[in-house]
Amino acid sequence: MVRTASTMLALGVSAPDFQLVDVVSGATISLATFTGKPALLVMFISVHCPFVKHVQTQLAQIGKDYSAQGLAMVAVSPNDIEKYPDDAPEHLAALAHAEGFNFPVCADASQAVAKMYTAACTPDFFLFDGDRHLAYRGQLDDSRPSNGKPVTGQDLRHAIEFLLAGKEVDANQRPSIGCNIKWIPGNEPEYFTGIRAEE
Asked: What fold does the segment set 3-180 form as a domain?
């Protein structure tokens, strides 16, 4: 595991479209799936990553807390499942069932979607407005597996609440920190350096 920071994609960019299969329902998921929703949260996750394990119950709770207000969510797992079989689709489905996720969970076998979003770590969060322009990218909150701080989802929740209220999200955002994405050998994107992150 390499402790890695998110790339902090430029705010305002349009959400890249994709087509991935939900490991639970078998449905094909794309941006069109969420048409009409005032906000969309795209998350890059992993079953085996301790940083994701640390926050996965909070991710489920965010889905429950904001779905009635129109927040759409989708989780994407981009890791190389040949070397990390714990991230295979059946294990993603088991995680979704265990945590009660009310949003699609998709396997990005080619890692193409992770590259389009410049995802670098798990977890990595990208929150888009109703026009699918990037309003927030960064950490869930200040909690990490070893720092003793409670998992509240504070940073991401504030961004979601501002967006759903039609307010501008504060551009002062801190990067997410997590495990580096496990790229298929030879498939590493140019933006990914695997540099150990400092906080």
From this structure: Glutaredoxin (3.40.30)
